[in-house]
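Data availability (excerpt). The following record was deposited with the supplementary files.
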Amino acid sequence: MLMSEFIERTGYQPSNEEYAQIEESYYAFPGNKDEFCVQWKKDYRDGHWQRELTLRRRMAAMQVEYIAKIEEQEESLKFYRAQFDESIKVREALEQAQDKLARLERCFHRVFGIDER
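Predicted structure:
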């Protein structure tokens, strides 16, 4: 349904933002344009539409807030992932050094005839 059709059927001039919400409701409505507009006018008179619109706006604001928090958490994860990866590299280097030291000790024991038991 076009905004002009909605205005013609209801006599209500919504903002573009409000019409986007109306259109979303229309697509979820099981009836035709005329039935939707009759129901919408009733909901508007009863205050249901204003409550729904307020709820949708709050939900949209919460979504923006949560997305910002998620992005912040992802940035933190990137930082800590880099720190973790670096610590893994250091640990692997330490393990390699320990392996080399153990081989050198075995070699030393063999060369000088020291019993390893």
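Summary of structural features: The mean pLDDT is 92.
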